Amino acid sequence: MSLISIGQIELKTVFHGTPGLPVILLIQGLGTPLTRWPMALIEKLAAAGFRVIAFDNRDIGLSTRMDALGLPDIRQMMNLKSFALPFPGMLPKLSARPSSLPYTLVDMAGDAVGLLDVLGVKAAHIVGASLGGMVAQLVATHHPERCLSLTSIMSSSGNPLLPPPTAAALHALFAPLPGECDEASLVEDSIWRQKTLMSPGYPTPDEELRAMFTAEYRRGGFHPAGVIRQLLALLAAGDRRTQLMKVRVPTVVLHGLDDPLINVACGRDTAAVIPGAEFRTIPGMGHDFPEALAGEFASAILSAAQR
Predict the structure, then answer these.
(1) What is the pLDDT of residues 100-111, one digit of tens each?
(2) In 10 A of CB 47, how many CB atoms?
(3) Closest CA to 167 of 87, 267, 82, 230
(4) Which of 130, 193, 255, 268 could form a disulfide with 29 if both were Cys (CB 3.0 to 4.6 A apart)?
């Protein structure tokens, strides 16, 4: 594991597989560290003959925290009175221009490309999940020469007419934090939120969730301001369909049929606008990475990469 300097920031990065092999770059979602990628998935990708690279996005985990950029009032920017924000479909427009944001998803895509630059990787197979899927899409559209294939997992095209999350998923995403922000309270809080979003067909036992969130807390601490800045970047990203129509690399879009946060229609719409994209669904999958589905995830990524 290394801290890689990209301009003014550092990205915590891990490497799996033999150096010199074709690279698969994994980009995680909103407020999610690189450790959330199942090790079984990474091992399958490496065994298939790829160098697998994953990193903590800016503002999350052990990468640079962007606190110097400040934290705009999200309620004021959204012209709303509460945090009951739709996500990702039916998004209201920001009342502030993107230039007033701490950073954008395009900046986060630039981080991924900057990482490839520093590592001397001319082009890679780009894989993203949720918000990371949106970042991966922007790598493919803004830096097409750096993208060999695209795998977009449980993500969206930004089409404002797509179905919104369930009420329970919205509550899990935006409910207030516990009064006591100590490790035990935050871990239990994360468990109930995750149980709302996780795959009903592949539920993760409470003890495994507790171990995962405890390890995440002890690894990178607790940084809600980073999650809010990433959320603002997502909300300002807008409709990407016109850009996605220009993607010319092999693409697989993977989505759970039971995703309560980003409806499966969002994945279907993403695949529909990318020329030649393959759309795959998994019954019983929600908005998480069950270890039992590592083979399904690997199959989707390798289908794109090997084309």
Answers:
(1) 789 999 999 999
(2) 11
(3) 87
(4) 130
CA nearest to 57, candidates 115, 122, 139: 115
Long-range CB contacts (within 8 A, 24+) of 32-38: 32/60, 32/129, 32/130, 32/132, 33/60, 33/61, 33/62, 33/216, 33/219, 33/220, 34/61, 35/61, 35/215, 35/216, 35/219, 36/212, 36/216, 36/289, 37/289, 38/289, 38/290, 38/291, 38/294, 38/297
Q: pLDDT, tens digit, for every residue of 286-302?
A: 999 999 999 999 999 99
Q: How far apart are CA 94 and CA 114, in angstroms?
A: 28
The model's pLDDT over 40-75, given as tens digits with 9 standing for 90+, comes to 999 999 999 999 999 999 999 999 999 998 877 666
Residue type at 17?
G
Other beta carbons less than 10 A from residue 167's beta carbon? 10
Compute the CA torsion angle 173, 254, 239, 108 (nearest 10 deg): 70
Least confident of 162-166, 233-237, 249-253: 233-237
Question: Cα(274)–Cα(140) distance, rounded to whole angstroms?
Answer: 11
Helix (H, G, I), strand (E, B) or coil at 295: helix
Conformation bin of residue 262: beta by default, left when phi > 0, alpha when psi is -120 to 50:
beta
